[in-house]
Amino acid sequence: MALFDKILSIFRKAETPAQPLPTCEEHSAILAFEKDLDFFMHEDDFKSRKEYQYLCDKHHGIYRTIEELKRTNTLNYFCENNKIPLDLIETFIAHYKDLAGESQLMAKHNEEYIVHHLKKEKSYLDSILHAVDPKIRLDEEQRKVVLSDDDYTLVVAGAGAGKTTTVAAKVKYLVEKQGIKPDEILVISFTNKAVGELREKINGQLNIPCPITTFHKTGYAILKRQDNDLSSIKTEGFRYEVINNYLKSSILQYPELVDKLILFFGSYFDAPYEGDDLNAFFNYLKKFRILTFLALPANKHICIFFRTFPTKNRQAHPNPTTPIPNIVPLHSL
Question: Taking Cα atoms as reference points, which of 311, 261, 264 lies closest to residue 288?
Fold first, then answer.
């Protein structure tokens, strides 16, 4: 099949019509773009966004020149004077704009690549996870995920749909077919349980030693690399101390800021209170039967507001006398 693909590519290139000789620098630049694009489209690989964006960046200068000629209504004169076919200019503009946006050219190319390689790699994909479980057979959607190689790929799947299996197959494909080194692949999941399953499949059964970890440990590792004094993950107690010290040093000694803080938290009871008069605000809350008390655990001072249901709503709630928290406790900011 590989030999057949090479022969077919030779025929495809032979069928490409000869380009006219350039008549000026701009003409040469346009022909160079079309040549690069033609070569790009005939390569047997999946094209990612960053790859065809490179073509746009490389040929942005000539595109800007053509756009300026269009803006000044001198494009036709320029083409006539330099003997450049106008349809060549129009084709160049269409191709460039396509690559600069959601490229239909690349979407078509990638779709054809996937269809071709689903057949070409069928035997390999059938047994890609044989070492994990000989009974595993990827379905067509999973195979498309494995073959796709875009910059960002979102895969939406429900519970038990085979996400872990797909990730394991993808990692193996990258290593065996794309030549990616295991230490250049980072697998991240949310939970320790998922990480354990991925490690069992990828590190253990497939024997691919790529790093597999959670988002939190990844973030902590990045922070620790930048800060040698970062010795541990901060607990909620640390967060409380930071906020408590900030309030004492920067807020509580300024009455006007205390008023604003109370108004800010109080706005969560209902629609935000319009005004800056604290006495008027408390009278406003009084209409809604607000109960306030101070909870004092061993090492925290928490101000919590509660709101009871008014009489007219009692049928809507099984226990109308039960206070309902309507604001986030201060210590949980």
Answer: 311
